[in-house]
Amino acid sequence: MASHNHLHMVFVPLMAHGHMIPLFDIARLFAARGVKATLVTTPANAAAFPKPDAVEIVILRFPSAEVGIPEGVENITQLTEIDHTDKFVEALKLIAEGPLAELLEERRPSCLVSDMFLPWSADVAARVDIPWVAFHGGGYYAQAVSEVVRRDRPQWGVESEDDEFDVPGLPGGVRFTRRKLPSAWTEKEGEKSAHTRMVEAAFETAAERSFGVMMNSFYELESDYADHYPKFIRGRCWSLGPASLCFRNMEDKANRGKQANIDVHECLNWLDSKPPNSVIYVCFGSITHVSSAQLIEIATALEASNQHFIWVVRRPNHDDEEWLPSGFEARNKGKGLIIRGWAPQVMILDHVATGGFVTHCGWNSTLEGVSAGVPMVTWPMFAEQFLNEKLATEVLRVGVSVGADQNCDWLVEEARVRRAEIEAAVRRVMVGEEAEEMRRRAAALKELAWKAVQEGGSSYNGLTQMLDALTSIKC
Ligand code: UDP
């Protein structure tokens, strides 16, 4: 096998947990193949995330004052006002064009790998004359649908938000509504926000100007769309996922992402005390805001469903009385565990006691649910999450929808789904024949996911092919 240890890759994630975590994992994967891997981050993010093994970290200053963002706010999950998003994006551009460009000039790596939502990377890499690989934080299905609606605009061929339209040309006949599409694809010409223009530029630049696109997915999961998607881009395309499977032991899984707000041994002991497939895990990722009214609906539904549960509630600044029915924890002692803040998600999903996952369908969570062989209650909220829901429920058939029907931005806080719907969906994935069928399909996908990342598997080979392609340009 060809050695690739002459290669040096520089990785630049978008500073949001759902984009940083998989790219940190991927940098580890490259380092494990003997490549020199350098990861670029900022002071607050470096302090919050554990350093991946064998990966060099370079810390660049975050230009808070220049763009008018409070000092220490260096991650999208910390933003509390939608207006700050544009300033945040401006800060990322300043980093790329200033200190990142200088770093690349000085180090002359073989390749820059950065998030597709950092489209100015194309210019920075071109200046230093190195290839740029765009990292897509989503799956093939969502990416393919997004490319069709961006280019052909079938969403404007129907009258109302709720009329279904065909997404032409895709395998399997995909139908969708405007109400569920990411907002970037539902703003009319002339009324587009700065954010929408940035998203459009990101898709266009990744498709037209990258040396290739790197996906955190695996071929066997969405093979029809993995075959179709490369038609939309000029460069090449490599599947390297699921990235989370680079963690093989409990300790690594427990420390992935951020320091958990629960003692991991306590969490494991709690799970060990429960029968297989008896716990439903509820978590909406790193960024979604969930209102107190909605949390009360969830609490009531979990209690009524009569299942064991682990429920992650990200409400650092709110009193429990605002969102927790009185006496809830005492009544559910032993039955349920609430984690306030950050949970060791991969560790929990991989535990044999975990039998279901209520998820907002962020791509990482969806893939982690699949990789753990766990059926899902799908509850999408924003961005491309409704597309991931469709993949999970209609294509893979490992999930049931809770019935959310409106794509909105992540800071919108309303109660959208009622307790009865939540309870019914939880029961459907946990008990009965339908649950067993989904569990069987999910277990088969889990096996395929593990095979994909083993030596000789499709994602293992995808990484080799990417290294070979970079070696051939270097030669
Ligand atoms: N995550 C975690 N613990 C938490 C919340 C999230 O480990 O309490 C991880 C999760 O495993 C996933 C990532 O954070 O890898 C969230 O990414 P995703 O794409 O699912 O959603 P986002 O946060 O981007 O909306």
Automatic annotation (TrEMBL):
InterPro entries: UDP_glucos_trans (IPR002213), UDP_glycos_trans_CS (IPR035595)
Group of enzyme by EC: transferase
GO molecular function: UDP-glucosyltransferase activity
Record-linked SUPFAM superfamilies: UDP-Glycosyltransferase/glycogen phosphorylase
EC number, UniProt record: 2.4.1.-
Keyword terms, alphabetized: Glycosyltransferase, Transferase
Domain of life: Eukaryota
Coiled coil: none
Pfam family name, one: UDPGT
Gene3D superfamilies xrefs: Glycogen Phosphorylase B
PANTHER family in alphabetical order: GLYCOSYLTRANSFERASE, SCOPOLETIN GLUCOSYLTRANSFERASE-LIKE
Protein family: Belongs to the UDP-glycosyltransferase family.
Listed name of the protein: Glycosyltransferase
Organism: Rheum palmatum (Chinese rhubarb)
Gene name of the record: UGT73BE14
